[in-house]
Amino acid sequence: MFFYLLSFHLRFTCSSAGFMPLQHASPSGDRSSHIDNLVRKLGPTLSKDLIKGFVNEAKNETSRINATPKSQQKNGIPVSPQFVLQPLSNKNISTVTGKAGTKASFDDELCELKYGSYCIWREENREEMKDSTVKKLKDQLFVARAYFPSVAKIPAQNKLSRELRQNIQELERVLSESTTDADLPPEIQKKSQRMEAAIARAKSIIVDCNNVDKKLRQIFDLTEDEANFHMKQSAFLYQLAVQTMPKSLHCLSMRLTVDYFKDHSFDKDLSEKYSDPTLQHYVIFSKNVIASSVVINSTVMHARDTANQVFHVLTDGQNYYAMKLWFLRNTFKDAVVQVLNIEHINPDYHDEATISHLTLPVEFRVFFHSSDNAPAIPNRTQYISIFSHSHYLLPEIFKNLERVVVLDDDVVVQQDLSVLWTLDMGGKVTGAVQICSVRLGLLQRHLGESNFQQNSCSWMSGLNVIDLVRWRELDISRTYWKLVKQVSMKEGSALLASLLTFQDLIYALDSAWVLSGLGHDYGLNIQEIKKAAVLHYNGNMKPWLELGIPKYKVYWKKFLNQEDQFLSECNVNP
User: Fold this and answer.
1) Residue 201: CB partners within 8 Å, gap ≥ 6?
2) Between the CA of residue 438 and those of 209, 359, 368, 487, 499, what are the distances in Å?
3) Residue 538: its pLDDT value, please?
4) Which of 195, 198, 63, 212 is nearest to 133 (CA)?
5) This prediction's pTM
């Protein structure tokens, strides 16, 4: 829009005094020199192709229109980079340590820093321009409004002034009733042609360029404000879609809950298996029925022996009965599933920081800017998911167990995980995939004066092997709650407390175990996806949402029984 209006602005012939007749005796070279000066002045904000177009157009017109005096140059005000820590959502943390190298990448990264993965989703889902006629009419209306005040001041142009006013009023009425090309009346082409002719006549009149310039700037400012408003509104709606349960999943949860109370006589009691330390126990924290079902189904489908598999699904009171009925109605080979309501669990360890409601793994987006001191380091964004408060209740919930594997509800298992039960972790508390691109030293400004090793790597949840015996020996839960109190006033306190709690207590799993990023990164290699043992959909674009990345959804959907009666009745079709 701005460049369209600017092309008109560059053709104006005006002087600082107001009205001035054209001089027809100037050499043609002056016109070219004048345009070159304008182009140089506007160079930093225009692309090379656009500048070339302006220069060629000016050269083609030198034979019939001559130069006007040079306009006064205006010096731009450089904007210094901002150094902020801004959460992208209520559970995100971002850091900025420098400034970007190019304007385009700087704008993209600022957008991602401000609006999160919405900017990635918007870029990947950009569509071809629609309703071009409506947009053209809006452009004509802006230009006509810019010329009208100047034309109205000229007594000899009363007829043109009335014609412009009439055309402006007609287009305003049409655009107030039409938002798409399909809504436009049949005679709109004639109205557009009349407006185009009126604008052409107005452009041929010598007018006060300052008035037109002022009006154009006002229109541009209004358009920019409107664009910013819609950008913020779109980002808000995106976050709302991410954090709100889809209607179909809400329907599923309600239907299952109602049916459970109609008949739960087939409830099974397998308490002996639930607490048998010789079996393979998997723990899933989830409020989502189909997400936890996909995790269990994918794990069972790739297991060599399912008879010794026990899954513990920890959920809240709202989803407890829906989960219970779902896993009673569906079988997973020889594996058994226990559903626990975390609100009914009373651990022996009591502390004012202990919570009684379920909290899911916390996801953070850490943003790093390159600095002047290290320009070779590119700008990058790293997504990290970490244990929530509920994870630190595990030793109390499963008092008879010695080792568990914790799976997030946004993962898909593609290989047998039985080897994790024979893994020698050398006295470490938990096995996890480490992210050495985000070391604790990079988060020093947020960790404060805490004792930590700067070269220690951060780690990810998603797939974690936990030695509960070692956890109890070191009293990890008490250490965590103490750290939570110390950093509670800082951004991302859960992230910082977890990283400090498990410092030097992480057994590094091979990176081939887990491939993360399927919930935010569009550029993952398909071969790496197929080879990974576990796929982690960390990020905002979960596979059960409409916002999920389509090409990654197929790996998740194949483990969902879409022929289930409840899924069909609630129209659950991720």
Assistant:
1) 160
2) 55, 24, 10, 19, 11
3) 92
4) 195
5) 0.66
